[in-house]
Every structure is written in structure tokens, then in C-alpha cells.
């Protein structure tokens, strides 16, 4: 059986919590799926939790496209990823933004 590897850039937005001092959350977005109209954002209380949620989300999105026999979007080159989400979840802009490829093997 052949293993298929799906690898997509995910953007991590670190945002200060507006009500809790010295607290932050990490929002993760998959721009390639967002462009297809898919809800492609998850969050976590820290990077580890956000990464785990992002991996689960990627798996769900790929499986949804396969199940519905839709064309899975091509992955963007990391250098060409648009970092602007168009919204801020919190009142302030993110204090840090990172991009990392997330992999789902099927």
C-alpha cells in the first residue's frame, strides 16, 4: 500500500489574551484551504496544543476532500504564503507570526 503525504504551510499567530495578564493563545491557519472557503483555523493555549490541533484539522480537511471526491488544494510555497488573515481574533495584532509545514500521512 502506498503512503500519501500531504504537506501544507500553517501560519501560527501568537496573540496576547485581552483579559488575562501575561497570557496568550496561538491561532493556526491553513491559507491554502482558507482560499477554498474551508474553515481552516484552530487555536491552542500554547504552541504544543495549537500544533496538535492543527495536525488534527489538516487530517480532517484532507479526509473531507477525499470523501467528497473534491480536488485537494495544491500546497503553496512557504515563501508565497499570505500572512494576513484579514481579521484579528484579539483586540491587538499578533506579537509573533511563524510559518511551519504540517504533514499528514495517509
TrEMBL record:
<protein>
    <recommendedName>
        <fullName>HicB-like antitoxin of toxin-antitoxin system domain-containing protein</fullName>
    </recommendedName>
</protein>
